[in-house]
Design a protein that fits this description.
Elements: E1 2-8, H1 11-16, H2 21-33, E2 41-46, H3 48-54, H4 57-68, H5 74-81, H6 85-97, E3 101-106, E4 109-114, E5 116-122
Antiparallel strand pairs: 1-2, 1-5, 3-4
């Protein structure tokens, strides 16, 4: 059984593959347009431990809130969820570490943006 996550390409993906000709055009677009140019989808296999945490009730609630409430800061997101900002931030860092989320700075606010597109279970 395979668990496959589809997500948007991130700047970290481009930085991790310097000189990879497949990414040259994407890197040029990123240099000109910034994060708005990163709309390519990457498929990655994930282990069961990762998926167990991702599919926990609190994490699912967070992912759904991120999808419904684009543009909220971490503090605003915590208010929507009725959770402490530090707990929400810890879960956001888990998503970021697995490249399912990126942060965008808007003034003094850090806005979390999902890069996660789809999760599939393949037998």
């Amino acid at each position: 059984m395979k668990i496959v996550v589809e997500r948007e390409l991130t700047r970290e993906d481009l930085d991790a593959k310097p000189g990879d000709r497949r990414y040259d055009k994407l890197f040029s677009a990123y240099e000109e347009e910034g994060d708005e140019s990163l709309h390519w989808t990457i498929r990655e296999e994930k282990d069961a431990g990762f998926v167990r945490r991702l599919l926990s009730p609190r994490m699912l609630e967070l992912v759904e809130a991120l999808a419904r409430n684009r543009g909220l800061s971490v503090t605003e997101l915590a208010e929507v969820l009725g959770r402490s900002p530090s707990n929400v931030y810890r879960d956001l860092l888990f998503l970021k570490r697995h490249k399912l989320l990126r942060f965008e700075n808007k003034g003094r606010k850090r806005i979390p943006l999902l890069t996660l597109k789809r999760i599939t279970l393949q037998i």
